[in-house]
Design brief:
Number of strands: 0
Helix content: 55-70%
Number of helices: 11
Strand content: under 5%
Low-confidence stretches: 14-19, 81-88, 91-95
Mean pLDDT: 75
Distance between the termini: 66 Å
Shape: globular
Order of helices and strands: HHHHHHHHHHH
Largest sheet: none
Length: 247
């Protein structure tokens, strides 16, 4: 492919409607000129970029999409028409498509401290946005189970990556803790909790006893590195405040 043809296809002039985002264009250009490898390129073009001021707009957009009226099909009902009357609600190709993309685990060992810090920031930021979408009544197809999955991975797995997973769990707890604790009180069953993890907490039922176990684990993690200790402190305070405030 010629240089001119490549530039035409990626439309790196910033007009995203006929090409791609400038950041994506740069990443593709670096790969085209053999300045980066495929893994780094994929990471650069798929990393979610949602500055704080954009999050409310993101939630509003997803909510508006899910509540769009059904398209006109000449008044004929089809087997695909959802019971609640909203064709767009729960579509699989919204934010939910990005769930559990664990490629970061495979590439983490090769990362230098600077790129590891950037990956950590993106990972934690994504957890926060997911939690905020859940609080907004599961907008974007994100269920509360994702929060249980994130926290259990961080606190019930001996092979967890604490500097990534504890801060991510802390965001879920501080943002959606009331919802998570309500599930514990009501004994909600969650597929996210039945996965076998090293600390023997593979019961699918969320309970207050499990919540207390998370508090104990976070107390231990407060003694780890700065990135982990600060997040653990924030999370355990939130867990105790929510539990004591609900008793």
């Amino acid at each position: 492919m010629s240089e001119a043809r490549f530039k035409e296809q990626i439309a790196s002039d910033g007009v995203e409607e006929d090409g791609c985002h400038p950041d994506e264009a740069k990443a593709l250009g670096d790969y085209y000129h053999q300045k980066t490898e495929s893994t780094a390129t994929l990471k650069a073009i798929t990393e979610p970029i949602f500055p704080e001021p954009q999050v409310p707009s993101l939630i509003q957009l997803l909510d508006a999409i899910q509540n769009l009226p059904n398209p006109d099909v000449n008044g004929k009902s089809t087997p695909e028409t959802p019971v609640d009357g909203f064709l767009w609600r729960g579509l699989p190709d919204m934010w939910a498509d990005e769930h559990k993309r664990d490629d970061w685990r495979r590439t983490l060992a090769a990362e230098n401290p600077e790129s590891r810090a950037k990956m950590r920031s993106a990972h934690v930021r994504k957890a926060e946005i997911e939690a905020r979408l859940v609080v907004a009544e599961e907008v974007g197809g994100i269920p509360l189970h994702w929060g249980y999955d994130c926290i259990a991975d961080a606190l019930e797995h001996r092979d967890a990556i604490p500097d990534f997973e504890v801060p991510a769990a802390a965001r879920w707890i501080t943002v959606a803790g009331d919802r998570l604790y309500a599930g514990a009180v009501n004994g909600i069953e969650s597929w996210a909790l039945e996965r076998r993890r090293a600390l023997g907490k593979e019961d699918a039922v969320m309970t207050v006893d499990r919540w207390l176990f998370w508090e104990e684990r976070l107390e231990v993690l407060r003694e780890q590195t700065e990135e982990v200790a600060g997040a653990a402190e924030t999370a355990v305070r939130a867990l105790k405040r929510i539990r004591l405030g609900s008793d």
